[in-house]
Amino acid sequence: MSLQQLDGSSFSTGMASFFDQSESLQGPTSKIWVRIEPDSLGQAVLAQVDTGAAWSILDADIAEALDLFDDQGEIVPISTRAGSFKFRLKNIPVQILAQQGDSLLVNAIVAVERGWRYGNFLGYTGFLERVKFAVDPASNLFYFGPG
């Protein structure tokens, strides 16, 4: 199940199927969605893996459920496909959920904004930079482990 590095040590500690389709799209896309559980939400949600995104973003409904809308945290402007927003950065634990092996808990920095209703994204700074990951597109598998 786990990937190996050249020296024989383990590269990944967990593996899960990823999704490259959604109900709103016709057929496969070049986008990858994985199951995560932000903080103590108590349920899995889908997040798009976006290595080109500066920050990870949580949908406003998820941020509200986690009580993340307060006046704490740095404000950063982020330009998105839906326009420009002023997000607030929050430090929260987020798990990447494994189907085999171990789920991975990441001490993540996520961006939240009340007007953001465009889904959850895993960006590089504060999240993906802390994770080793690999994608097997032939079998839709996402491998991951601590960075």
UniProtKB/TrEMBL annotation:
Q: Which organism is it from?
A: Nitrospira defluvii
What this protein is called in its record is Aspartyl protease
Q: Which domain of life is it from?
A: Bacteria
Recorded hits in SUPFAM superfamilies, A to Z, give: Acid proteases (SSF50630)
- InterPro entries named in the record: Peptidase_aspartic_dom_sf
